[in-house]
Write a structure and sequence with these properties.
By secondary structure, the protein is mostly helical. The protein has helices at residues 2-22, 28-59, 73-93, 102-125, 132-153, 157-180, 185-189, 211-216. GO terms for molecular function: NADP binding; proton-translocating NAD(P)+ transhydrogenase activity.
Length: 217
């Protein structure tokens, strides 16, 4: 729920505060910082929300624990990251005056939430059930950074500090768990491991014989 709360908070607070902040020329720098945090918080919140739903479904047996290995899934994930980065660049390049319409900017935030949500599904669904404990800690770290962005948007220092603590501790725990499994974090996040393995094919020449012949030999 932290993910969806971060998405709603970042979008709503930006729509409310941006016109007031950009009305003062001395606050343009702070406004650009707020735009960056709002966009990143929206994207991370989308990843956290849908990724947590997929992880919950796999752990509860609602969804198949086997990885969903989509064709060209790595290219798809890279494309989503590229689209999100381009959206951030367009969001920051947009004018900061009152004549800039808020609806297109809000649509860019909505696009960030959509891209993050799809990324959360594709990334988590491609990971097998055996690696779900690591995925939980990674998503916990994501939720912490989303909470940090939410606290920044609400000007709540306590929420920002707590979010940073959760995000950093989740990242450290994920690293420790991967080291214990002799795996790297990208190896787990990219998916396709920790699943069933197919047995090797039996090869060789089969010779049929009679039991009496073998006894005589």
């Amino acid at each position: 729920m932290v993910g969806i709360a971060a998405v709603l908070t970042c979008v709503a607070n930006y729509v409310t505060e941006a016109p007031i902040m950009f009305a003062d020329p001395s606050l343009i720098g702070a406004g650009n910082l707020m735009k960056t945090v709002a966009y990143l918080g929206t994207w991370i919140g989308g990843v956290t929300f849908t990724g947590s739903l997929i992880a919950f479904g796999k752990l509860q047996g609602i969804l198949d624990s086997q990885p969903l290995l989509l064709p060209m899934r790595h290219a798809l994930n890279a494309s989503l990251v590229g689209i999100s980065t381009a959206g951030l660049a367009a969001f920051l390049a947009s004018g900061g005056d009152l004549e800039t319409p808020m609806v297109p900017l809000s649509m860019l935030l909505g696009g960030a939430a959509l891209a993050g949500s799809v990324s959360g599904v594709t990334l988590t669904a491609a990971i097998g059930g055996a690696d779900m404990p690591v995925v939980i800690t990674v998503l916990n770290s994501y939720s912490g950074w989303a909470l940090c962005a939410e606290g920044f948007m609400l000007n709540n220092s306590l929420m920002t500090v707590v979010g940073a603590l959760i995000g950093s501790s989740g990242a450290i725990l994920s690293y420790i768990m991967c080291r214990a499994m002799n795996r790297s974090l990208p190896n787990v996040i990219l998916g396709g491991y920790g699943t069933t393995s197919a047995g090797s094919k039996v090869t060789g020449l089969t010779v049929l014989g009679v039991l009496d012949e073998h006894i005589l030999v």
